[in-house]
Write a structure and sequence with these properties.
Largest sheet: 9 strands, mixed
Radius of gyration: 53 Å
Distance between the termini: 138 Å
CATH architecture of the largest domain: Sandwich
Helix content: under 10%
CATH class of the largest domain: Mainly Beta
Strand content: over 45%
Low-confidence stretches: 1-34, 60-66, 84-97
Number of strands: 45
Shape: flat
């Protein structure tokens, strides 16, 4: 508001015009009416005078600036306060008689308490609105048990596990029926959860109601029984039968039989199959009873009580849910004979090369306190085959005991060869005294790779097994067969190493220089060619090495197609290395130059240009080590048609 200055002490009294700051000087006279100036001044003093009796200075007016931001905030506060009051008033007035608590929203699940694994189960989910207000945007979401296989639902869900229910008026409701198969482990608890989401008509928020149903897997719909021997010999084959039955009224799908055996038990498989201990069935019809069979061998050192645990159950993705289990016990005895097979001094599986000599030794010992009679020893080979031929070269076998050899074609791709020794070939097999031991030694070769050029096969294998048959124990006829250990051999790739010293190349062009034949005191230059060829498997970590004699020098002139070649002056070694050689590359090579200056002591002799040339590599398929060697190269230049035989120093 306008601000006026108060009259201070010492100011003279002024009349009303002066007080108001009005200039009354005029030529026109104004007629005075009514009250006197003094009376009016007294009234003004009563109105405007402050506590000290001073009058404000009405001749000057001051204006004070207003705070607009503060005023706006105060205005907004007043507005929202008023709005809140009106909202609550509206809610109390219009919501009267429509209270919502959520306690009267109904969600219930009906389900069986117990079922057998693989049985069909039905869940009934009932929902309803017993509140006084409508429920909007209703949605039902179902979380199935982990091992539940959905078959159908009424009504059909909008999505896999979700139903859109829409609005529910007060008193309205409905139900959802879900059917499926429970395939959990026996005695496990399978839980289904239902979540009902909605929005009350007098709220702008979402609410949920949750219900769960728990069902116990009480028993199995699959029965199983294992039948087998109660006693087997270590190293001997044992056969077991598993009888199984679907005792339910519905077909069962994705069934697995799993056998867990001791570590010294090996499952027998067909040719070309990997060892396995489980068998899957896509469907077993209701009420069907059937059986399956499997065989295996306990290792030669196995002894005592052994257990095989057999389970039948359902496959749930990557999980297995057992429904029935049986543990089968049997005794493993060592038998009358201890039998061990070794090849090249080792009883383990390994890889060999084409053309290798396989030196076998069958070692056997009488473990009984009694004499063993009519003993027969067998050596059985099974190998990759084509046209009734084996990988082994029987014509090159060496057997001083001259066992009987019999061949049998097991399948189009596998052939068996068997050597048998009896008391006719080895008289001591007629009687083996307690504790007596002996051995049969023989050799057989792997055929060279050139014999298999048209087979169209890249993987070759040999399985070898020794066995002993005992006819009598302590003079009494008691036939017993003891199988020894098995040695599995994989054949490495057909790697070949070539090394030649040349003066002329294949086109009869000189690649060397100097005297030919070499002469004392004169330098002759030679070219050394190395070549690696391969076709069956990829090989890696390839290294070819040779050493130069003292009188031969490295010229540091090389021609290399792949890899890297180095010469070490200290060790006089030449080394050519390659990281790998895939089967798409059939051959790679390198050549380099060396020089030789014969001395008087060399006269009349050949000069050794390189010592043994050795290749080392690893077969990527068999993981086996490959070693090849070429004998020393000399000035005789074997393989060089133009210069061969001209190596004697003159």
């Amino acid at each position: 508001m306008p601000r006026v200055r108060s009259k201070k002490e010492g100011d003279e009294d002024i009349d009303f015009d002066e007080f108001l700051g009005v200039n009354r000087s005029s030529s026109k006279k104004i007629k005075k009416r009514g009250r006197s100036k003094k009376a009016i001044g007294d009234d003004l003093k009563r109105i405007y005078a402050d506590n000290n009796g001073d009058l404000p200075d009405m001749s000057k007016i001051y204006h004070k600036k207003k705070n607009r931001a503060k005023g706006a905030l105060i205005g907004f506060a007043v507005f929202f306060a008023t709005l809140a009051v009106l909202s609550w008033a509206g809610f109390l007035f219009f919501g009267k008689g429509q209270n919502f608590s959520g306690e009267k929203v109904v969600l219930e699940i009906t389900s069986p308490d117990k079922v057998a694994g693989g049985d069909e189960v039905e869940y009934i989910i009932k929902y309803g609105n017993n509140e006084e207000v409508p429920l909007g945007q209703g949605e039902m979401e179902i979380h199935y048990p982990d091992n539940f296989v959905f078959t159908e639902a009424i009504p059909v869900p909008a999505e896999e596990k979700s139903w859109q229910l829409g609005s529910l008026a007060p008193g309205a409701g409905g139900e959802i029926k879900i059917r499926g198969i429970l395939r959990g482990k026996i005695d496990s608890l399978q839980t289904l959860q239902a979540i009902f989401s909605y929005k009350p008509g007098n709220f702008n928020s979402d609410f949920q109601k949750v219900a769960t149903a728990v069902t116990k897997m009480e028993k199995s719909s699959l029965e199983m029984d294992v039948i087998g021997p109660t006693r087997v010999l270590a190293g001997g084959e044992a056969t077991f039968k598993i009888k199984y039955k679907n005792i339910s009224s519905a077909d069962l799908t994705d069934v697995r039989i799993l056998v867990t055996a001791p570590s010294d038990f090996s499952f027998k498989v067909k040719e070309g199959e990997k060892e396995k201990n489980s068998w899957d069935f896509s469907k077993i019809e209701a009420g069907k009873e059937a059986e399956m069979e499997f065989s295996g061998i306990f290792g030669p050192a196995a002894e005592g009580k052994k257990e095989l645990k057999t389970q039948v159950g359902f496959i749930n993705g990557e999980d297995f849910a057992p429904q029935s289990e049986d543990t089968y016990s049997l005794d493993v005895a060592q038998g009358a004979m201890l039998l061990t097979l070794v090849m090249n001094g080792d009883a383990n599986d390994r890889s060999v090369n084409f053309g290798d000599a396989l030196n076998y030794s069958i070692n056997f010992k009488n473990k009984e306190q009694a004499e063993l009679g009519d003993v027969e020893v067998e050596m059985v080979f099974e190998s990759t085959s084509r046209d009734n031929k084996m990988v082994l070269d029987w014509s090159a076998s060496q057997d001083s005991s001259k066992g009987t050899i019999v061949g049998t074609q097991i399948s189009p791709t596998v052939r068996q060869g068997k050597i048998t020794w009896t008391k006719k070939q080895i008289p001591k097999l007629a009687k083996l005294a307690p504790g007596e031991e002996s051995a049969i030694n023989f050799q057989i070769r792997v055929r060279p790779s050139v014999d298999f050029g048209n087979w169209g096969v890249s993987d070759f294998a040999i399985k070898s097994l020794a066995a002993v048959k005992v006819g009598k124990i302590g003079g009494e006829v008691k036939e017993e067969k003891i199988d020894g250990n098995i040695i599995n051999l994989k054949i490495n790739s057909d790697v070949a190493l070539g090394a030649e010293a040349r003066y002329f190349n294949d086109d009869n062009i000189a690649v060397g220089s100097g005297s030919l034949p070499p002469k004392v005191g004169e330098t002759t230059t030679y070219r050394i060619f190395w070549k690696v060829s391969n076709s069956l498997h990829e090989i890696e970590n390839i290294k070819v090495v040779a050493t130069l004699p003292a009188n031969v020098k490295w010229s540091n002139k090389t021609d290399i197609g792949s890899g890297e070649i180095k010469y070490n002056e200290a060790t006089r070694k030449i080394e050519w290395t390659l990281n790998k050689m895939p089967t798409s590359v059939r051959s790679v090579g390198v050549n380099f130059e060396v020089t030789a200056t014969p001395v008087e002591a060399d006269k009349g002799k050949q000069i050794v240009l390189t010592e043994n040339t050795i290749l080392q590599a690893q077969d990527k398929s068999t993981n086996g080590a490959i070693t090849k060697m070429v004998l020393p190269l000399t000035s005789n230049l074997d393989g060089d048609p133009m210069a061969e035989g001209k190596g004697i120093v003159k």
